Amino acid sequence: MQLGILISGRGSNMKALIDACAGRDYPAEIALVLSNVASAGGLETARAAGIKTIVIDHKAYPSRAEFERDLDQALRDHGVELVCLAGFMRLLDKDFVKRWHDRMINIHPSLLPSYRGLKTHERVLEDGVRFTGCTVHYVRPQMDEGPIIMQAVVPIDDHDTPQKLARRVLAYEHKIYVESVRLIASGNIRPRGNKTASKGLKF
Ligand code: GRF
């Protein structure tokens, strides 16, 4: 399965996917890494791995629709079959989301549907919850919503800081993103209504 990875920053989830795709028997390849930010650190990582990169700077467009039209075109031109959002910091309009319905996934650093949005680690620590985690899900028009593919649970320590917690959660993000793409690309999971149906989770 051909992947298109969308990033805006350091791209550590993207790197986890690059490493997985380099492995034997992994059922996906990266067709393209695309960023809306020319200075995104992840672009250098992708180039160093010999992966095609494109920058489409949203600030150069008069409207979101025109930006997304070019985004869509680039993904199609490169034969992308599954779009992986990996720290892509632009909200996508419902027309774009509809075009990639069931063919676009996202990673979020909380146990959805709790803690949608930004600053998840700060908020879980403020609330004093004992567990947090991360979620990979199919993308729907509402932010951080959509059928859940995989989650990992991370216990919270009494002396956690947002930075420490972010580091521990991120290590699990890398694992569940790689395993989620494996499940999709091998045809072992599919969306069913607002949930997913799987033939067996390996993680
Ligand atoms: C991750 O925490 C991801 O869950 C969130 O944005 C961050 C991106 O990190 N959506 P990276 O660029 O993959 O390192």
From TrEMBL:
Cytoplasm recorded as keyword: no
Q: Which residues bind N(1)-(5-phospho-beta-D-ribosyl)glycinamide?
A: G11, S12, N13
Enzyme class, UniProt record, top EC level: transferase
Q: Which residues form the active site?
A: H108 (proton donor)
Q: Which UniProt keywords apply?
A: Purine biosynthesis, Transferase
* Site (Raises pKa of active site His): residue numbering on this chain: D144
In its UniProt record, a GO molecular function of this protein is: phosphoribosylglycinamide formyltransferase activity
Catalyzed reaction equations? N(1)-(5-phospho-beta-D-ribosyl)glycinamide + (6R)-10-formyltetrahydrofolate = N(2)-formyl-N(1)-(5-phospho-beta-D-ribosyl)glycinamide + (6S)-5,6,7,8-tetrahydrofolate + H(+)
A GO CC term assigned to this protein in UniProt: cytosol
Binding of (6R)-10-formyltetrahydrofolate, residues: R64, M89, R90, L91, L92, N106
**According to the lineage, what is the superkingdom?**
Bacteria
Give a yes or no for keyword Kinase in this entry: no
Residue ranges occupied by any Formyl transferase N-terminal domain in the UniProt entry: 4-180
> Which Pfam families does this one have?
Formyl_trans_N (PF00551)
Enzyme nomenclature, EC number:
2.1.2.2
GO BP of this protein: 'de novo' IMP biosynthetic process
* Listed pathway(s): Purine metabolism; IMP biosynthesis via de novo pathway; N(2)-formyl-N(1)-(5-phospho-D-ribosyl)glycinamide from N(1)-(5-phospho-D-ribosyl)glycinamide (10-formyl THF route): step 1/1
Q: What is its biological role?
A: Catalyzes the transfer of a formyl group from 10-formyltetrahydrofolate to 5-phospho-ribosyl-glycinamide (GAR), producing 5-phospho-ribosyl-N-formylglycinamide (FGAR) and tetrahydrofolate.
Q: Which family does it belong to?
A: Belongs to the GART family.
Q: What is this protein called?
A: Phosphoribosylglycinamide formyltransferase
Gene of this entry: purN
